[in-house]
C-alpha cells in the first residue's frame, strides 16, 4: 500500500514533470519512481538499457517533509540533463543548477543527494585545489594510468597521487564508500593495506579489486605511499602481499619491475 509520504512525492514529481515538459520539451512519460532505503534522500539513475528512474527515500522524507520540494527538482534536473545533453548539465554544474532553479529547486547540493554512474564504480577524487570531482570507471583508469586532468573551473589537477573514494557502483551509492588517501597523506602503508580487512580469508576480494585498480596499479600506489612515508622495503612488500594477494616472490618481482615508474629506488632497504 502506498504511504502518505509516497503519495506526496509522486504528486510533487507529477507537478514538476508537467513544468519541465513545458520548459524543456522533454518526454518524462517513461520516468519511473522508486522508493529506496539507504543514506541518500534521492538519486537519479539511467540504466544501461535506457530506463530513467528517480529514487526517493521515504524514510528520510517522512522525517523531513520540507525536503520533498528540494529533492524532487534536484533529481529531476539530473534526469532532464540526461535526456537533453544540450542543456549542459553534468553533476552539479551550472547547467544542472539552471534546470534545478527553473523547477523551483534551491540549488542545494548535499552529500545526501547523490548521483552516481550507471556503469561500474563511481569515483570521487580530491583534486590538488581541494575540489572534489566525480569520475567514471574509464576516467579513473586513465588517471591511474598516469593521465593528468585539469579542472576547468579551478585549474586544479587530478592525478594518480590524489586521494579518491569509490562512492558508487552500478548506479547505486555505496553504503560505505571505500577511501584511498593521497600519496602524500600521513597515512602509512600499513594502514592503507589493512583497509583490505582480514587478509586471512582467501576468498575475500583483494583491496586492489575492491578499488577497481589493477594489481600493478595498486602495487605502484603502495610503493609511492610507502616510499614517501619512509616505510622500509619489507613493509612495502608486506603491504603489497596483503593488498594484491601476491606471494612474496611476486611482490618482490613487482616491486623491481615497477620501481622506476613509481619513482621509487629499486634498491630501497
Ligand atoms: Zn545531485
Write the layout of secondary structure elements.
Blueprint: H1 4-24, E1 32-35, E2 42-46, E3 52-56, H2 58-63, H3 68-83, H4 94-102, E4 113-114, E5 121-126, E6 132-135, H5 137-144, E7 149-150, E8 157-158, E9 164-169, E10 172-180, H6 189-194, H7 207-210, H8 215-228, H9 233-244, H10 248-262
Helix pairs in contact: 1-3, 3-4, 8-9, 8-10, 9-10
The chain binds zinc ion.
Sum this structure up briefly:
Helices cover 41% and strands 17% of the residues. By secondary structure, the protein is α+β, with helices and mostly antiparallel strands. Zinc ion binds at residues 74, 78, 92, 113, 115.
Question: What gap, in angstroms, lies between the N and C termini?
Answer: 66 Å
Strand order of the largest sheet: 1-3-2-4
Poorly predicted segments: 194-204
CATH class membership of the largest domain? Alpha Beta
**CATH architecture level-2 label of the largest domain:** 2-Layer Sandwich
- Tell me the CATH topology of the largest domain: Zincin-like
Name the structural class. alpha+beta
Q: Which sheet architecture does the biggest sheet show?
A: 4 strands, mixed
What's the rounded overall pLDDT mean? 81
The total domain count is 3
Number of helices: 10
Rg of Cα set: 22 Å
Helix-strand string: HEEEHHHEEEHEEEEHHHHH
Task: Describe the global form.
Answer: elongated
Bound molecules: zinc ion
How much helix, percentage-wise, in residues?
A: 40-55%
**Total beta strand runs:** 10
CATH superfamily of the largest domain: Metalloproteases ("zincins"), catalytic domain
Strand content: 15-25%
